[in-house]
């Protein structure tokens, strides 16, 4: 097996052969997916970095890896600092670093199937000022030196039934056709994998943790569609379910099909479609309408069937998590449980339901200081025992046919009692979680307007957390879904944020992280629902909590809680006991009764 040093050397030799002075390697695929298949894990192969977001710039005499605050610690553990400079975004700019480090006349390559056009335009403009050029490559040079690169998944697609989806594919395509006509467009290119899956009511197993099919979709103004997918991946029952209005075509025909849109007005989402798609349309002479993917917003607003499905999935998931928390209480204090065995045990409880399709992301199983790494991924090298007298953070979720789950619990590993600081920080996180959970708000409110509710008690103590408070969640789709979010405004432009709509699912997950010591996060998923307030003017909304599993009372400083917060705790745990309890028996049921007793 090549070392990462040898891989970097081989890439530089390939770049020199192509007359390139540098190359940019993102974690991305042709669909700009958050999680990518093994075939597209170019950055991981090159550097050893295992995070889900990052970019590397490779030059003849230097290289740098750019990651955000989630991965500040992880990147130093996994990537050789002798080979790559560590850069933190948004403070450090990849374009600025390139401009400062390339000589005049240099050519820096990029793969147009892995970047947006806006990214390419911005980097090209910065390099142009430095007398250098950003140039698209034909064929990725990393692939040329990656001898054992996995092939894309050959897993078959399968149908997501109309009963679970709540709307047929024909209805969804008809709505998109109406939108196209209103926008005076002839067709729309849909490249995001979860959007393709949602429009067609299909699912797949091409990307770990996200049940999607590697494919592209073109929907036309008459409601028909061309689906570009590798041959052999679409069984007869899927073809039958889609009907004659969806033409199944070879994925290899996609670029030619874009050329065939010459003279048409074609919509494409600049944020969800790679630069190569826009280049192909422009070369063909199509008129491009840079419009948001028409599936994104309706996908985020769950149908009544999807809402019922996610409630059922969370009930099932809550049984598994509650059994795991009982198991953890029994075994972790003996210092025989490590991060990997705990994650495996949790997965086994989920599998016991008989309905788990996959995890919704790699379980974050962090003991002590590893819990302070926000997006920690345990490995054999970093695996730690859950030590008695420490804090353990476990963030996990499942993909079920009727819903996607995501839950974080922070647990005290006994015996003994947590110290005052740990209890203070945990309770402040809890207070923020409760403040958000109970808030009602007028229609038109954005998530950025609510974010401070979850931070206020931490801010009062002079501390904060460096991630968003809530992300959207799909329905047996991506665990991280837009456009809804609860976070600080992007660039201070609150007006650009998506308003929260009834039917949207989001996470509620404030946290606190003390580097080198411990991490705390409390996460439930919530559903935006209409809220009746006597005498209210206009339309009001609130949150229905979906997640059902006990929160560790040992970490709570009740002296910091108000009577209303204690009432929320008691009501939530009474519901957990009422809903989860009947599905447990014996010692599991007895443990739950103790864990859910009132404060």
Describe this structure in words.
It is a single chain. With 599 residues, the chain is of the alpha+beta class. The chain has three domains: 4-145, Creatinase/prolidase N-terminal domain (Creatine Amidinohydrolase, Chain A, domain 1), CATH 3.40.350.10; 158-294, 3-Layer(aba) Sandwich (Creatine Amidinohydrolase, Chain A, domain 1), CATH 3.40.350; 301-595, Alpha-Beta Complex (Creatine Amidinohydrolase), CATH 3.90.230.10. Helices cover 35% and strands 20% of the residues. The chain has 19 helices and 28 strands. A six-stranded mixed β-sheet has the order 4-3-2-1-5-6, with helices on both faces. Strand 13 (265-268), helix 12 (275-284) and strand 14 form a beta-alpha-beta unit. Helix 16 (420-438) packs antiparallel against helix 17 (447-459). The longest helix has 28 residues, at 304-331. It starts with a helix and ends with a helix. 50% of the residues are buried. The model has no long low-confidence stretch (mean pLDDT 96). It holds the Pfam family Creatinase_N_2. Its EC number is 3.4.11.-. Belongs to the peptidase M24B family. InterPro entries: Creatin/AminoP/Spt16_N (IPR029149), Creatinase/aminopeptidase-like (IPR036005), Creatinase_N (IPR000587), Pept_M24 (IPR000994), Pept_M24B (IPR033740), Peptidase_M24_C (IPR032416), X-Pro_aminopeptidase_P (IPR050422). One of its GO terms (molecular function) is aminopeptidase activity.
Q: What structural keywords apply?
A:
599 residues; alpha+beta; Creatine Amidinohydrolase, Chain A, domain 1; 3 domains; 6-stranded mixed sheet; 35% helix; 20% strand; Creatin/AminoP/Spt16_N; protease; Pept_M24B; hydrolase
């Amino acid at each position: 097996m090549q070392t990462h040093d040898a891989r970097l050397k081989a890439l530089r030799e390939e770049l020199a052969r192509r007359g390139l002075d540098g190359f940019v390697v993102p974690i991305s695929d042709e669909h700009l997916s958050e999680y990518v298949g093994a075939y597209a894990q170019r950055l991981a192969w090159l550097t050893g970095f295992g995070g889900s977001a990052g970019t590397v710039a490779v030059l003849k005499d230097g290289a740098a890896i750019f990651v955000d605050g989630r991965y500040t610690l992880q990147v130093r553990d996994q990537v050789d600092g002798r080979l790559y400079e560590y850069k933190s975004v948004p403070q450090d700019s990849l374009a600025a670093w390139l401009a400062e480090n390339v000589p005049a006349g240099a050519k820096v390559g990029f793969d147009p199937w892995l970047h947006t056009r806006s990214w390419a335009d911005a980097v090209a403009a910065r390099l142009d000022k430095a007398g250098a050029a950003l140039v698209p490559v034909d064929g990725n040079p990393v692939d040329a030196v990656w001898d054992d690169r996995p092939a894309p998944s050959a897993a078959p697609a399968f149908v997501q039934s109309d009963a679970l989806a709540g709307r047929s594919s024909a209805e969804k395509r008809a709505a998109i056709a109406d939108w196209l006509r209103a926008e005076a467009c002839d067709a729309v290119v849909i490249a995001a994998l979860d959007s393709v899956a949602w429009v067609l009511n299909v699912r797949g197993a091409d990307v770990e943790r996200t049940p999607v099919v590697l494919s592209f979709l073109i929907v036309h103004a008459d409601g028909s569609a061309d689906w570009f997918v590798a041959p052999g991946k679409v069984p007869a029952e899927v073809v039958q379910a889609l009907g004659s209005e969806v033409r199944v075509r070879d994925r290899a025909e996609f670029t030619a099909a874009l050329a065939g849109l010459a003279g048409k007005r074609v919509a494409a989402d600049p944020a969800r479609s790679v630069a190569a798609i826009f280049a192909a349309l422009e070369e063909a002479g199509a008129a491009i309408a840079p419009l948001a993917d028409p599936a994104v917003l309706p996908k985020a607003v769950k149908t009544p069937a999807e809402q019922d499905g996610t409630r059922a999935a969370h009930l099932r998931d809550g049984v598994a998590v509650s059994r795991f928390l009982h198991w953890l209480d029994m075994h972790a204090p003996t210092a025989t449980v490590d991060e990997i065995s705990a994650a495996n045990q949790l997965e086994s409880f989920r599998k016991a339901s008989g309905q788990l399709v996959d995890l919704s992301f790699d379980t974050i199983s962090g003991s002590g200081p590893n819990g302070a790494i926000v997006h920690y991924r345990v490995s054999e090298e970093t695996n730690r025992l859950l030590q008695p007298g420490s804090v353990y953070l476990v963030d996990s979720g499942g993909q079920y046919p009727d819903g996607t789950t995501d839950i974080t619990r922070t647990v005290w590993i006994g015996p003994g009692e947590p110290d005052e600081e740990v209890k203070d920080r945990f309770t402040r996180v809890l207070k923020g979680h409760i403040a958000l959970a109970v808030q009602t708000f007028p229609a038109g409110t954005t998530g950025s307007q609510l974010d401070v509710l979850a931070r206020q008690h931490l801010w009062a103590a002079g501390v904060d957390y460096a991630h968003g408070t809530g992300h959207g969640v799909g329905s047996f789709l991506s665990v991280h879904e837009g456009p809804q979010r609860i976070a600080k405004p992007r660039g201070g432009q609150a007006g650009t944020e998506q308003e929260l709509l009834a039917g949207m699912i989001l996470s509620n997950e404030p946290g606190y992280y003390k580097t080198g010591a411990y991490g705390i996060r409390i996460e439930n998923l919530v559903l935006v629902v209409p809220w009746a307030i006597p005498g209210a003017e206009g339309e009001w909304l609130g949150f229905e909590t979906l997640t059902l599993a006990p929160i560790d009372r040992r970490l709570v400083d009740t002296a910091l809680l108000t009577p209303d917060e204690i009432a929320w705790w008691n009501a939530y745990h009474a519901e957990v006991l009422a809903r989860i309890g009947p599905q447990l028996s014996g010692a599991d049921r007895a443990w739950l009764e103790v864990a859910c007793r009132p404060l």
